[in-house]
């Protein structure tokens, strides 16, 4: 089979690896529009269960990813002058550039061709391909060429956010909430190497405008944020994307879904198919899980269409709970004043529960007490586990009906 992957992100590279491991005779090419090594972004996160899945699918690349990652084992929250720590929150982070390098090297060692600086706006330019995989991100040109067929739907979040790096290396997954004259602004930060960390800054639109972050050029915006988070950064600098003139590149998150994920021999992968709010730290993981399911669906398939249908059904089903968690996580931050005045330990506990569909409907202090009791009483824990998913499905159906 001749396969062309458009976009050289983690999903397409990993998919090409898995497909080559299944059948070395496949002719696979990955086309990336940007030059080699020009990826944006800082570190990406993943969790212990994902590392185990990587090991089952390809131990070679999993070992390299694990060796190149930084691990944390607890979470820390700074709320003004107050600090609380929650032990046992284990996770991993790796630099996006390093991850792409590991996957590209592994793919090339298996015979995958990777071409950089090669943009493909339409699959019509790939007439010899049996399968075209659109892994070209949330702004996929391959998908947008057939927008009516795919049924792409986008929902905008409320809060502006900015993705930054810093020279301070955080050894714990760290949250910091700072009150300003214009409202609360917060960040979460995690180390991904021995030299750098990711730092994502978020606030309400009113705070963003009040602090003039909506119009400050990037260097001035970074200096202002360094002042706001001075106690957290301890003299270290924040780093933005280089070569950008004008205001800093703040964004409002777009949650993207598609009614269907394939069109003939064209199939969507990763952010081209779906996005989930960055606050759950799962974007790269979900994209690589797409790659796993798509590759396994194609294994031994005599024709492509049934395999693509199986891939879409499986992943849509698996994503339901994750998408619900991401939606509620985003809403937790959008409604921060509801939680920010709680005692630090209570607030941090509810920060960890922000994925729950029950939380928005129960007074925060009452939810905290119920949650603590549920940890002690098996019957309450079973009720919570039973009620949460059912409420999530009810609310999702209601939101769909309104849309």
Helix content: 40-55%
Poorly predicted spans = none
DSSP strand count? 15
Structural classification: alpha/beta
Order of helices and strands: EHEEHHEEHEEHHEEEEHHHEEEEHHHHH
Radius of gyration: 22 Å
Beta-strand proportion: 25-35%
Average pLDDT reading: 91
Largest sheet: 9 strands, mixed
Overall geometry comes to: globular
What is the chains' assembly state? single chain
Q: How far from one another are the termini?
A: 40 Å
Total helices: the number is 14
Give an account of the 3D structure.
A hairpin with a 2-residue loop joins strand 9 (173-180) and strand 10. The two termini are 40 Å apart. Strands 3, 4, 5, 8, 9, 10, 11, 12 and 13 form a nine-stranded mixed sheet that branches. The radius of gyration is 22 Å and the shape is globular. Helix 1 packs parallel to helix 10 (283-298), helix 3 runs antiparallel to helix 4 (96-109) and helix 13 (364-376) packs across helix 14 (378-402). By secondary structure, it is α/β, with parallel strands linked by helices. The mean pLDDT is 91. It has helices at 10-22, 48-57, 59-67, 96-109, 141-144, 147-150, 205-210, 218-228, 230-233, 283-298, 304-334, 344-352, 364-376, 378-402, and strands spanning 2-6, 27-32, 43-46, 70-79, 82-95, 113-116, 131-134, 152-166, 173-180, 183-191, 197-203, 238-239, 251-258, 262-263, 266-268. The protein contains 14 helices and 15 strands.
